[in-house]
Amino acid sequence: MDCIDQTLRCWNQTILVQHFDQSSIEKIVRIPLSSAISSNRRAWDLSRDGRFSTKSAYLALRGGNRTHDNLWKKFWKIKLPHRVQLFVWKCILNGIPVRDFLSQRINLDSNLCPYYNMMPETTMHAILICPHVRNDWLSSPLRIRTDRFTGTGIRDWVSLWHGEKPYTEKYEYMQKFPLVACIMWSIWMSRNTLIHAGKTDSHEVIINRALAYLPQLPHSTYCSIF
Question: Which residues are in the Reverse transcriptase zinc-binding domain (predicted)?
Answer without folding.
Answer: 52-137
